[in-house]
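Quick one: structure for this chain?
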Amino acid sequence: MSILEEFEGEENVALIMPNDFLDTIQEIGVSDLINLDIACIMRVLSKPEMNDSIKLDEFEVLMANFGCNIEPENNNSSSLNN
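Got it. Here's what it folds into:
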């Protein structure tokens, strides 16, 4: 995860790099995604103007809509909790 000082009027925007995101979903056991699934996920979540990074707050909103809560473990990382 990294922090972008300013993006579209927001300060200290938390970002997840695309490869880190994909590695993490495989680590938590989501390994049956096909290339089309990955392309669709990245199309929804990634920001081309930020090197296809994912804004953590948008990811949290999306996961909350699916019933998953994300609670920070510490100041530098987050985890999924059902």
